Every structure is written in structure tokens, then in C-alpha cells.
Amino acid sequence: MANEILGLHFFSIKQDLNPALFIKPQKISENPILLLNLGAKLFFAQKMLISAIFIALHSLFFLLNTFENAPSIIDAPYKTANGKVSFISQAQLETIKAQSSSLKGGIDLEKQTFAFSLPVNTFQGFNSDLQKIHFNENYLESSIFPTATFQGKIINGIPPQKEGVYPVKIVGKFNIHGVVQEKMIEGMITKKGNSIKIAANFTLNVSDFNIPIPKIVEFKISKTVEVKVEADLSAS
């Protein structure tokens, strides 16, 4: 009965119209083409629903993972809320530069640990507004993965109380684009009075964080990105 009503609803016509111009009313169950069309629409709707559920679950998992592994800076003796991070992508046909002054984090020299976080959408610069949009929407997907984090340990150890300039080796876990990768980098820590200055330069492989580079722009986006970090941390 439902099929009959649905069929009449889609194909109801007046009896006195020219039948050569219209399809005769009929049941959907009697027309294989209508059944195929309806099946295709139902399959597409089901696929869209599954995709929406997958995206929602993926976002929820990322948020839970972010909260679980969030940088523990509340108890860190030295903190910053405006550290600087910049990156350069030097490809064959284009160089892309961007920077942010929204790095937050802390260092505990007694425990020789650190933790930092950065809102991805705070990067400014690029070569155009459209390039910035593509960076956030197509590559880093900042609406789904809003924060990049890096936390770990100073492995060569520095004196917690003594002033000075110290080269350091640190190992930690980057969480970028929802992917966690461990990396060791080298940098400098300058301790003077109640403040610490940090500086580091390192490279990141784009592919390590499942960031796709479309074939059409492979000569404009480098597969490796040079990153520079600078921050002044004050005793809390």
C-alpha cells in the first residue's frame, strides 16, 4: 500500500493529458528502474550517514585523546603563554612562511620535563588568504584537530638552579593532525634569574602526520617543513 501511495505521489497526472508526454501512474514495485533509483538513493543516504558518524566518532576520540594527553603546565615552575613558532616550506616552485605567537607551555627543571601546546589556526603569514584557508581546511584540518602539542623530557640534564646557557637534547611526542610521533631535537636553554629562554630549530616530515600533498601542488609544498621555536618563560 505504501509503495502504491508513493508511486502515485511521484507520478500522479490527469487522465485527459497526452499520455505520450507522461509516464503512466504505476507501482514502484512494478518498475525496475524506479526500484534501482530508489535503491541508489537509499545507499547514498546510508553512506553519508556512516561517514557522518565516523567523523563524529573520530573527532570525539581526538578530543578525548587531547584531554588525556594535554600538556600539564599548571604545576610547571616556568611558563609561557606567548611563545613564537614559525615554519618554512621550501618547495621547488614556492616558499611558504607562517608564524604564531600563541605557544603555551611550561618547563620543570627539577623533573627535566616540558609540555607545550599551540592552536593550529593561529598561524599568520602565508602567500595569500586562500593559502591560509587551504592550510587550515585541507591540510592541518584545524576544525577537527585544533591543537598541536609537544611534551617530553630533557635527556642530557641541566642544573636546575644554576644560571647559564645550556645546549640540550630533548625527546618528546608531537601530536599533530591527530597523529602522535616521537622525535628527538636539539636546542638551547638560557637560565637567568627567574626566567628561562628556549630556542630550537628542527624539521618535520609532512607524511609522518598523515598530511596529504595533492599531486597538483606537489612542487609547491615541501615534504619537509623547517620549524623554529623561541619562547621566554617566567617563574610562576
User: How would you write the strand order of the largest sheet?
Assistant: 1-2-3-5-6-7-8-9
Q: Major beta sheet, specifics?
A: 8 strands, antiparallel, barrel
> What is the helical fraction, as a range of percent?
10-25%
CATH evolutionary superfamily of the largest domain: Lipid/polyisoprenoid-binding, YceI-like
Spatial gap, N to C terminus: 74 Å
Give the overall silhouette: elongated
Low-confidence segments, ≥5 residues, pLDDT <50? 1-23, 62-71
Structural class: alpha+beta
Describe the structure concisely.
The chain is an alpha+beta fold. It has helices spanning 2-11, 32-68, 129-139, and strands spanning 78-90, 95-108, 113-119, 124-125, 147-154, 164-176, 179-192, 195-205, 224-235.
Structure description:
25% of the residues lie in helices and 40% in strands. Mean pLDDT is 81; it is low at 1-23 and 62-71. It is elongated, with a radius of gyration of 28 Å. It has 2 domains: 2-67, no CATH class; 72-235, Lipid/polyisoprenoid-binding, YceI-like (Lipocalin, Beta Barrel), CATH 2.40.128.110. The longest helix has 37 residues, at 32-68. With 236 residues, the chain is α+β, with helices and mostly antiparallel strands. The protein contains 3 helices and 9 strands. An 8-stranded antiparallel beta barrel has the order 1-2-3-5-6-7-8-9. A hairpin with a 2-residue loop joins strand 6 and strand 7. It has helices spanning 2-11, 32-68, 129-139, and strands at residues 78-90, 95-108, 113-119, 124-125, 147-154, 164-176, 179-192, 195-205, 224-235.
